[in-house]
Amino acid sequence: MKHGLLAVILAGGLLAACTNATLVSGNAPTTIGNAITVIPAIGWSRFGEGTSEVWTVDGPMLEQLRFMAGLADGDTAIIPSPDKNPTFATSGLDTDKAPRFRKGMILPEVKEFFEGVLAYADAQRPKVENVRPEPFAGQPGFAFDFSFTSKIGLDFKGFGRGTIRNDKLYLVTYHGTRLRYFDMYRKDAETVIGSARLL
């Protein structure tokens, strides 16, 4: 059984994972993975460390910001779980088959990489579209929109912004339930992404 981005949404161990959250204060500069700094407008609950983090307000099963802060050649966005329990950022122990970022990727390949991450996480009908050039973190970058359905039938929509610098991928995505939560925190997510700067 695979657990990835959607394990965050569907995890039975979610409440236990939430006890490990730290609070990100609004209007305070925050650093992710010694790679990206952002300034959120509101408070978020923060899970994870290193090159992969998830932020949420009402719970990652409803909405989440996900940071991929400097994935190098061969890195995966999937985080293995040492205890085999699906928590906020788990994908199970088997990451051998997980999609991996490769240096030299061009934009269509980054699109395929992210679609692969969604599919690995058991997203149903993942779709990445409207891929376009767009500045990110003061660098030439790209943007895209995406959607998927969870295994229990919830529809989600989201967007991503990112760049590749020095052969590393910097990507921030936001998604939430199509009904209510995507729109509820969309502007706040855009504020975080718009404030991003690479270190």
Task: Tell me briefly what this model is.
By secondary structure, this protein is α+β, with helices and mostly antiparallel strands.
Write a concise keyword list for the protein shown above.
single chain; 199 residues; alpha+beta; 20% helix; disordered N terminus
Describe, in plain words, how this protein is organized in 3D:
The chain is an alpha+beta fold and 199 residues long. It has one domain: Mog1/PsbP, alpha/beta/alpha sandwich (Protein Transport Mog1p, Chain A). It has 4 helices and 11 strands. The protein has helices at 5-10, 14-18, 107-120, 181-194; strands at residues 22-24, 30-32, 36-38, 44-49, 52-56, 63-71, 124-133, 142-149, 155-165, 168-177, 197-198. The strands form 2 sheets. It has an 8-stranded antiparallel β-sheet. A hairpin with an 8-residue loop joins β7 (124-133) and β8.
